[in-house]
Write a structure and sequence with these properties.
single chain, mainly beta, globular, 7% helix, 633 residues, disordered N terminus
């Protein structure tokens, strides 16, 4: 810890000394960004103390990645573990936490499914085609705002605001090996009501042998105002898809002794309503209701010819209903108080089997209700000091309760240089799979818990040029793991994750810009030399954008991921391997042919670098995508 804190302290000291020459108007040149994930009420990113990163619509368009996870890779502290190809599962880790320690939100609705074998880890490949206006990433324990599951952080996908400003748009992209992606979107004003509709269909193609995914989806939103005090919102989201891949830990297309594939089909249905009432200029109430139903049916050949992982299957349905009630009072002098309560009702019904030549059922059916109450105070203590103090209490109908708190502080040393410090707690209720699985489930499992601290500095160089650095330390306790001797899930591990992040963006006039991110993460399992899978010590990305002329832009993105520990059962016994570094260069070219018509050319993995994402699972080689987009006047 001392070596990392020393590095960060040195960087902060250096930046602080240089920042004294900054001009007051530098911050005024940057556009203000409002974030909705880090607090109970929306706030400006400049006033937040938490470690928040935002990818807006312009950044997402410039990146032009084939997958949402590839865009997230460009951010500091975000690590991706994937099982080669679009049909495989993508686990997203923030600052070394488990994949199921990150809470995924779509317009404020939690999507994590506690019935899956990954303990609720969300597969980001489910949302590749959604029209996303902004992605907010909040790092560190966030249960004080978002309850269970937010041990390592939160990723929030926000779609465009309904209204006539969203002109009709059609985009088609095609590529190698059967890849295509068709999306349509439009917005309109129908009197006092604004609407937005986004629909599409996509086939990933078979860029990696055996790995393919096909998805159809519709997302519709509406917003309307009644008078000057009441605003209503509504959302309907539906997707249906299927995927194929080699079974996890089977050795993939390179090492598996069988070409039999795992097959899965799934359907997600979401509905949400919101009401915001301004009772006065200083007091507001925000009520949200939503329901989610996710069903997935999976059949796997297991890892043949061995019986360590026999053929198996599940047909699981997860249902979630939730309501939140948030009140915010503006107390004057840049002080505000938010308070309220929320309620979540979850149920999981899983029918499954293991095939040892005879079928063993693995069925379970569980439900739980969680009620939370919370209080948050935000204050500007002086012209250069912002304070955020939050506390929350959660209680389930099974008698489990959690109290979490968070303290955040931001201090502007100069108009161009700011320090941020955060301490927070998080928890995760055991997944339904860990509790109820007929063979390995343990109904006595305790919630997993986290405590985290980070210290960061950000220097506004000039205009949109910025340099940042942060040091973090997270401790996870009561981690749930499978005990082969007891042949059940148990709470046993404590994991410490610490490291630092450095990131920046430089604007070289109007024609050139550069951005980069570097992450160093050390992870230790207390009392053990065991290494955790899929989490590299080092990771770095760098991107460069050239504006060649008013109609033509080009972008290069380079990604390097250090050695990663991975395991497999393709030999019939546990096989471990340290995978080589991952290096990949992507190239983009965007041409605005007319005011209504634009074209994009993308070459992923330009140099055709070859590496494995898991034991026996290769990355996709050099691939080409060509897109065309038409937007109405």
């Amino acid at each position: 810890m001392k070596r990392y804190s020393g590095i960060v302290a040195g960087l902060i000291s250096s930046i602080a000394m240089q920042s004294t020459v900054a001009d007051q108007d530098r911050q005024d040149q940057a556009l203000e960004t409002i974030v909705v994930t880090e607090n109970y009420a929306p706030s400006s990113i400049s006033a937040t103390a938490a470690s928040v990163t935002v990818l807006d619509s312009d950044a997402l368009s410039e990146l032009n990645k084939a997958q949402v996870s590839d865009a997230l890779r460009t951010l500091p502290g975000v690590l991706i573990e994937e099982q080669g190809g679009a049909g495989g599962l993508v686990a997203l880790s923030i600052r070394g936490g488990e994949g199921n320690f990150t809470k995924i939100l779509l317009n404020g609705v939690a999507l994590n499914d506690p019935t899956n074998v990954r303990g609720g880890s969300y597969d980001m490949n489910l949302l590749n085609d959604l029209e996303v206006n902004r992605i907010e990433v909040v790092k560190g324990p966030q249960s004080v705002i978002h309850g269970s599951d937010a041990l390592a952080g939160v990723i929030h996908l926000v779609t465009p605001t309904p209204g006539a400003a969203l002109r009709p748009k059609v985009r088609f992209e095609g590529g190698q090996d059967g890849y295509y992606n068709l999306k349509l979107s439009t917005g309109a004003d129908l009197g006092p009501v604004g609407v937005f509709v986004n629909a599409g269909t996509r086939d990933s193609g078979e860029w990696v042998a055996g790995s393919e995914r096909q998805v159809d989806f519709i997302n519709a939103m509406a917003a309307w105002s009644i008078g000057e005090s009441d605003d209503f919102t509504a959302q309907l989201h539906w997707l249906d898809g299927d995927r194929t891949s080699y079974p996890e830990q089977s050795g993939g297309p390179r090492l598996s002794v069988s070409s039999a594939l795992e097959r899965s089909n799934y359907t997600s249905e979401l509905a949400a309503l919101g009401w915001v009432r301004d009772w006065s200029e200083t007091f507001r109430t925000d009520i949200k209701l939503n329901t989610l139903r996710y069903q997935e049916q999976t059949d796997s050949p297991g890892i043949v010819p061995y019986t360590s992982v026999p053929a198996n299957g599940t047909d699981a349905v997860f249902k979630q209903q939730s309501v939140s009630w948030v009140n915010t009072a503006e107390l004057g002098n840049d002080h505000s108080l938010s308070f309220g309560a929320d309620y979540r009702d979850e149920s999981g019904d899983s029918k499954g089997y293991l095939d040892f030549g005879f079928l063993i059922p693995t069925d379970y059916r569980l439900s739980r209700e969680t009620t939370g109450v919370f209080l948050q105070w935000r204050a500007r203590l002086a012209d250069d000091v912002d304070l955020n103090l939050s506390t929350r209490y959660d209680d389930t109908d099974q008698g489990q309760h959690q109290h979490t708190s968070r303290l955040g502080l931001k201090y502007e040393l100069t108009p161009a240089f700011a320090l941020r410090a955060n301490w927070g707690q998080g928890f995760k209720l055991p997944s339904f799979f860990a509790l109820g699985h007929a063979l390995v489930g343990n109904p006595d499992l305790l919630p997993e818990e986290a405590k985290g601290f980070d210290l960061g500095a950000e220097w506004q160089l000039s205009g949109s040029s910025v340099l940042g650095v942060s040091w973090f330390e997270n401790r996870y306790t009561n981690l749930i793991d499978f005990d082969p001797q007891a042949f059940t899930n148990v709470n046993r591990d404590r994991v410490d994750a610490q490291g630092f992040e450095v990131w920046g963006q430089w604007q070289g006039g109007e024609k050139f810009s550069l951005n980069f991110a570097l992450t160093k993460t050390d992870i230790e399992v207390a009392g053990s030399a065991r290494e955790l899978e899929g989490r590299p010590d080092w990771q770095a990305t760098i991107g460069a954008l050239w504006v060649l002329n008013s109609d033509l832009t080009a972008r290069l993105d380079y990604r390097w991921v250090g050695e990663v520990f991975s395991s497999s059962l393709h030999t019939g016994q546990s096989f471990t391997q340290t995978l080589d570094d991952q290096r990949q260069l992507d190239w983009r070219l965007a041409w605005a042919a007319t005011a209504n018509l634009s074209m994009n050319l993308a070459i992923d993995n330009v140099l055709d670098d070859n590496f494995e994402t898991s034991v026996g699972f290769p990355n996709a080689g050099r691939t080409l995508r060509l897109g065309i987009q038409w937007k109405a006047d």
